[in-house]
Amino acid sequence: PLDPQAKKFLDTMNGKKTRGLHEIGARRARDSYNARPAHLAPEWIDVFKVTNQTIVHQGLFIPLRIYTPVESISALQVCVFYHGGGMVIGSLDSYDTLCRQLSVQSGCFIVSVDYRLAPENKFPAAVDDAYAALDWVSQHTDTFNGDNKHLMIAGDSAGGTLAAVVALMARQHLTIKLKFQLLIYPALAAYADSESHHKFAKGYFLERLTILWFQECYIQTEADRRDFRCAPLNAQDLTGLPPALIIIADHDPLRDEGVEYAKRLKASGVNTELQEYDGMIHPFLSLAGILDQGRQAIALAAKALKTAHGVRS
After folding, report:
1. Residue-wise over 157-188: b if at least 16 C-beta within 10 A, else e?
2. 248: which strand partners?
3. pTM as predicted
4. Which of 24, 72, 166, 276 would suit a FRET pair with 181, their CA atoms being 20 to 30 Å apart?
5. In this model, does residue 313 exceed pLDDT 80?
């Protein structure tokens, strides 16, 4: 059954006569997403320093936000973070409180990436930005006292897609050594056709029609869907990837994709932990202001980043 706190939230949301994101278009959807009540989000906490940085890649500007948890003489671990939003919505600001929590609780630098969004920028623009940001961070950790020997990636929903993709891409490059990947209810499949997509198609906050609209905005051709950079479950070889923690919710359309990816990682010899939260919905970490399990999952994610080597196979 649904967690009582999640049910209360859904009852409120489903009782409102609002149009779906797919009905109002990308710009208004972004405005609506950014205008979410602050009390829903993870609690805002102070960090030692927040630095906004813009990097240039192939003539394009990619904004980053670097969260420094504490003042430290020794170099700290670094995690590159990709926000959620179906590749269409989401921003540095809308994930600010989550990044603050992850940084302070883990004691790691969190580098949040503001990648290009669809439909203005179709696949693979977000992937290109995501990898360029990781590459820049790996080469410039010394500029903010980061330790590139302890480099990690994390992503939430569509950001989980990007984190999984970047891990696959980085595996081929000797200059980037990823220690860990954190995938929070990631979107990993080419089509929204799993059992969970249909079982939780409507009424559970993230709806199947919205997911299909996100894909329509982002994907250009059927060939894109077959590309692992679009859907990591298309990747034939998952060996040699960094250890992973995959967090999923059991009332989430994306649930089955996370389960399948965890199984394939384990079968490929990758040290992987799958943590499923009973009664939870997508995106429960971003609703940690009202969901106890959201706060618990943030604490688990931060602990995994802090230790990295402690993931069970």
Report:
1. bbbbbbbbbbbbbbbeeeebebbbbbbbbbbb
2. 276
3. 0.97
4. 72
5. no
